[in-house]
Amino acid sequence: MATENPSLTPYHDSKSSSRKDAEGELELPAYQPPTKGFLSKLPVSCVPYAQLMRLDRPAGFYAFYMPYVIGIAYAAAASEIRLPVSLLLNRASIYIVGCVFLRGAACTWNDNIDQDFDRQVARCRLRPIARGAVSTLQGHIFTAAQTLVGGLLLLALPVECVFDAVPIALLFALYPFGKRFTYYPQLILGFPFAGAIIMASHSLYTNPFSSHNIIPTFCLVFANICWTMVYDTIYAHQDIEDDVKAGVKGMAVRFKDTTHLICSLLSVCVVGLMITTGILSQLGPAYFILSSGGTAASLGSMIVLVDLKTPSSCAWWFHWGFWFVGLSMLSGLLAEYAGRF
Questions:
Q1: CA distance 265 to 226
Q2: DSSP category for residue 223
């Protein structure tokens, strides 16, 4: 899952010396406690749990949060009544806090389920559960605690959001198992991310399933699912050699020689679905220029310029490409909301 900062070998000191084992194999550096940054200020016992939540690695947080903001902007732009800015900001602030715990729970669960895989992948082998800093039971308890805290925030939202949250949580729980039985775990991952659009609409007292909204809403949802498949497949190319050896399935493994083609086709779907959303919702030129056009340019640049054989390039384009696409989607919707009234 795309939940980390663009770093090739997290949670270890790059200056640590490597050594060879008894068979002459080159060993990777051992874990070193953080000596700078946010984690270095925490009590030692808290560091593994902060690492499980990825509190020091904000890039993945945006993947969780951006669809909620897009959903808020979409509901505001498509609404027949003017939604006050204060309401939009209130919902955006609730989702900021909620996504910290949602992401933390999803990452902790993912690390627990994937701990045997993680020990075989260079970039993931020093995650807290994989390296033994947190036990399997402690990981499950921490997942439940974060889920509970995040769930309490639902009390500040309309009741419909509770019903939206249940499938979102269940699909995040299913995701790590998807790597075992399908080459399309990115498709599974796309659904809970894109479900944020439906939840955000409900939180603004807008019915995304009304006769007027249902088709454009689902077009935007599936555009976000396709977008998730694009960026997470590119992200997964960082670990493709280790994933093949460990038996981890995914689109990067399935389409390792045709990733550019697959991502291009998915990107065409993203843009086509966004254009359809704009037409059916009767959105204006700002949406088509900024959201549809900007998304097309951003995705095109990512696919043309990313070097899939270079992990640092995959990480860079995941991080910045996500911002380019996400802000493109968001900007047109916000411009439509600002200009409609």
A1: 9
A2: H
Question: Which amino acid type is present at position 189?
Answer: L
Q: What is the pLDDT of residues 179-223, one digit of tens each?
A: 999 999 999 999 999 999 999 999 999 999 999 999 999 999 999
Contact by Cβ (8 Å): 9, 123:
yes
pTM (global) more than 0.85? yes
The answer to whether 68 touches 92, Cβ cutoff 8 Å, is: yes
- Helix-, strand-, coil-residue percentages of the chain, each rounded to 5: 70, 0, 30
- State whether residue 36 is helix, strand or coil: coil
Domain ranges of the chain: 39-340
Token representation of residue 339: 């200009």
Residues 98 and 199: their CA atoms lie apart, in Å, by 12
Cα 98 to Cα 150, 154, 286, distances in angstroms: 5, 9, 30
Amino acid at 333: L
Q: What is the pLDDT of residues 85-140, one digit of tens each?
A: 999 999 999 999 999 999 999 999 999 999 999 999 888 899 999 999 999 999 99
pLDDT tens digits, 17-65 = 444 444 445 467 888 888 888 899 999 999 999 999 999 888 889 999 9
Nearest to 67 by CA among 183, 189, 237: 189
Tokens of 184: 């399309």
Q: How many residues does the chain have?
A: 341
DSSP tag of 11 = T
Is-contact 234 263, C-beta < 8 A?
yes
CA distance 103 to 119: 21
Q: pLDDT tens digit string along 261-288?
A: 999 999 999 999 999 999 999 999 999 9
What CA–CA distance (Å, rounded) separates 47 from 270?
Answer: 39
- Could you say which DSSP state residue 206 is in? -
Class of the CATH-defined domain 39-340: mainly alpha
Exposed/middle/buried for residue 24 (C-beta within 10 Å: 0-12, 13-18, 19+): exposed
Look at the block and give the residue holding tokens 């010396």.
Answer: 17
Q: How far apart are CA 219 and CA 224, in angstroms?
A: 9
Read off φ and ψ for residue 21, nearest 5 degrees.
-85, -170
Beta-ladder partners of 19? 27
